[in-house]
Design goal:
Methylamine Dehydrogenase, Chain H, Thrombin, subunit H
Length: 756
């Protein structure tokens, strides 16, 4: 029979090495640990889309995320090479990042994702194994060879019976043979030094079973089968050594010890396969383990909910929690921001406003750079928390809407009350299913909210605690209709209430006249690109910006809808690079709209975040996953801290903050400040000067009066890159900041110390 040798070569494909971006901040969750690796005096722990290192001895923690240039895809495995001082991050998409801890740069390796002959499902990276100057990469298509000495791909091995793709879970080398544990392809091996490993016929097979992993320990090969049996390979025979009654999630050797991890158990063997440690008692928490290892006589556990934990072999019931401070989760649904505080929710419903399967997620609260996480259990086990409304007269009181459980009253981060069908007039779809979504406070301290799929779809909870519900069955007919979903709710300075809907456009309610109105329809009616209104925002000119599932609109003088049934919205027309008129963000799904201190607009879409001028005619920024540290192009919400100008951007894969310049202007210059101050050696970010009045002139001079920078503020702050008119960095010294108001009637002088 003629043998067919399938040759498959990867050419080295890299994107440019990336470094840390000083204008961005990582606010990811590090509590869902996917994998652990050790070396160089550190423990590396991979969370969902980022990594952190824990230095033994100093206990120093370093985050490694999209801010440093990581790809922010879903991580599946990591490996630290002590020989090359490099950290390898393997993603479920097939991407690979190479992080250099010394110069803190990231090299993106895109070879696997660029191969059209490999389906996306088969690109998943499962395991790294270092042998000599090679790194064997186990994937769902086979094995790829990566050369550590020059960071280039070598050959790829398709080891199926006829050279087809075969899922490889783990590899090891023993006695000059490379062993590959596979799914539905048995345990396969070949001569690791053969120049023809690409020849599938050179790979021999032992049984046709499925295996979770294969490792080498003390001159023996051990295998973990899919039925969770630990076996030793002797010749071509498998000798059973131990049995686990749960799915084995991690199987590895470190420091001459074999470690087996299930969801609630870690068992560690010495090199003679005698049990050293058996951890199964978790009194402090309910474990959901993903991985474990032992390093320098300390056991490290990766948990999918609790983060990275450490314990000693002598006391395995006392755990130290090591993950850096962060929110509960990365799948952000909505944000609420006041100065120095952020609330994050993680609820979810699909495009048809269906909340099932219900998410039990809790909420997160960032206060003065510290996270307070309120778990699901502390919220009366209320599912699908969607939005927050902070009481403007008492910011310690926050209301949460649940798209299944009604309304929750939180005070000082603790649940005080829950309003549902048992203690309020709120209506349910069926049983206890009360779908509250949009909520907001009016100027009198009353909380307004909408309820989907019921006749009384609008309610008011007064500051005194009494409820009032409003019949919406005529303006939004069909209370039992599955498609009757109501979205974001906002209130203007006159007390008029506006909220979005799935099929009825913009719905408005005017309390002073007890009148409902709506703007609905395409070009012949309300001029909406789509009747599914997802987001609303009132700008500083009382213009209502409307985000739909298919585009953007502006409603000038929105209260006119209560008098004129023919009120229609307006598209924003811009000129493209060729001078051709086109509609701004045509066809885009708009998840959120936020107005900053300069009356500019932040727009959250499924194609990234847009920062527009006040009239929408100019795109100041467009941030995507490809050109910024955004962890996903699916942006779910954006909020601005008007005191600091910091822009919080929530995505489906994590929360980041952008250090913007737009703060709310003030009446006087009494609170002017410059920070950081002093500017210390090594700092490469921007210097912010805030506490300004709109239109203020800011001049920065050296001590001799030579002008190095000048700008007019558009809001309450400006930024300086510590360069002389954007050219060279200024020298060490004291720099004068001369500020004058637009009418030149008020002035202020402050100083900035620069140390190079």
């Amino acid at each position: 029979m003629k043998r067919i040798v399938l040759l498959f070569f990867f050419f080295s494909l890299f994107s440019q090495a990336q470094e840390q971006n000083p204008n961005w901040e990582d606010l990811f969750s590090y509590y869902s640990i996917q994998d652990i690796s050790t070396g160089g005096g550190k423990v590396f722990a991979a969370a969902e889309n980022s990594v952190f290192s824990y230095r033994i001895g100093t206990q120093e923690i370093e985050k490694i995320s999209s801010i440093q240039g990581l790809s922010s895809e879903k991580i599946n495995t990591i490996y630290y090479s002590a020989n090359y001082n490099l950290l390898f991050i393997g993603y479920k998409t097939g991407l690979m990042d190479v992080y250099n801890p010394q110069d803190k740069t990231v090299l993106k390796v895109i070879n696997i994702t660029e191969k059209v002959t490999i389906t996306p499902a088969n690109r998943r990276i499962n395991h790294f194994y270092e042998y000599g100057d090679k790194l064997f990469i186990s994937t769902n298509y086979g094995i790829s060879e990566f050369r550590l000495n020059n960071l280039e791909f070598g050959d790829t091995y398709f080891i199926g019976d006829a050279g087809e793709q075969l899922q490889v879970t783990q590899t090891t080398v023993f006695n000059d043979k490379i062993y590959a544990a596979t799914q539905q392809g048995g345990l396969r091996f070949s001569d690791v030094n053969s120049p023809n490993l690409v020849d599938f016929s050179l790979w021999q097979n032992i049984t046709n079973n499925s295996f979770r992993g294969v490792v080498t320990l003390n001159n023996a090969v051990y295998i973990m089968s899919n039925n969770n049996t630990l076996q030793q390979l002797q010749g071509n025979n498998f000798i059973n050594k131990d049995q686990f009654n749960q799915e084995v999630r991690d199987f590895r050797v470190n420091e001459e010890k074999l470690i087996v991890t299930t969801s609630n158990r870690v068992k560690i063997y010495d090199n003679q396969l005698s049990t050293l440690v058996n951890i199964s008692n978790f009194s402090d928490f309910s474990p959901n383990l993903s991985s474990a290892t032992i390093f320098q006589e300390v056991i490290y556990l990766g948990d999918l909910n609790e983060g990275l934990l450490a314990a000693t072999p002598s006391n395995t019931s006392a755990f130290q929690f090591l993950s850096p401070d962060g929110p509960l989760r990365n799948d952000v649904f909505s944000l609420s921001v006041i100065p120095n505080e952020v609330w994050v929710t993680y609820g979810e419903y699909d495009v048809f406003f269906n909340p099932y399967p219900l998410k039990r997620a809790g909420v997160s609260h960032l206060v003065n750079e510290e996270w307070i996480n309120i778990p699901f259990e502390s919220l009366d086990e209320t599912e699908e928390i969607t939005r927050t409304a902070i009481n403007p007269s008492n910011t310690n009181q926050v209301f949460l809407s649940s798209f299944f459980g009604g309304v929750l009253d939180i005070q000082d981060n603790e649940l005080q009350n829950k309003y549902d069908i048992t203690n309020s007039p709120l209506q349910s779809v069926v049983g206890n299913d009360v779908r509250v979504n949009g909520i907001a406070f009016d100027r009198d301290g009353n909380l307004w909210g909408n309820v989907s799929r019921v006749d009384n779809g609008l309610f008011k909870l007064s500051s005194g605690g009494s409820f009032q519900v409003f019949d919406t069955s005529e303006i939004v007919p069909g209370g039992g209709n599955d498609n009757l979903g109501l979205s974001e709710l906002i209130i203007d300075n006159s007390g008029n209430v506006y909220f979005g809907s799935y099929i009825d456009g913009i719905v408005g309610y005017q309390p002073s006249t007890n009148t409902f109105a709506k703007v609905k329809g395409g070009e012949t009616a309300g001029n909406l690109p789509n009747n599914y209104v997802k987001s609303l925002a009132l700008d500083n000119n009382n213009q209502l910006w409307v985000g739909t599932a298919r585009g953007l609109r502006v409603l000038y003088g929105p209260s006119g809808m209560f008098d004129d049934p023919n009120t229609s919205a307006n598209e924003i027309i811009i000129l493209d690079d060729d001078g051709v008129a086109q509609e701004l963000l045509v066809g885009s799904s708009i998840s959120a709209i936020t107005v900053d201190g300069n009356n500019n607009k932040w727009i959250a879409t499924e194609a990234g975040a847009f920062y527009l001028s006040s009239n929408g005619q100019e795109t100041i920024y467009r941030f995507t996953k490809e050109n910024s540290p955004l962890p996903s192009n699916s942006v779910t919400d954006i909020e601005v801290d008007e005191a600091s100008g910091k822009v919080y951007i929530g995505t489906s894969n994590g929360l980041v903050a952008f250090r913007g310049t737009a703060t709310s202007s003030v009446e006087t210059f009494d609170e002017v400040r410059a920070f950081p101050n002093p500017v210390r050696p090594g700092y490469s970010g921007m210097v912010t000067i805030d506490g300004l009045r709109e239109g203020a002139n800011v001049k920065i001079t050296d001590i001799e009066g030579n002008l190095v920078y000048e700008v007019f503020s558009e809001g309450g702050s400006v930024q300086w890159d510590s360069r002389a008119f954007g050219k060279h960095k200024v020298a060490s010294g004291v720099y004068m900041v001369l500020i004058s108001s637009k009418d030149q009637l008020e002035t202020k002088v402050t100083k900035i110390m620069v140390i190079r």
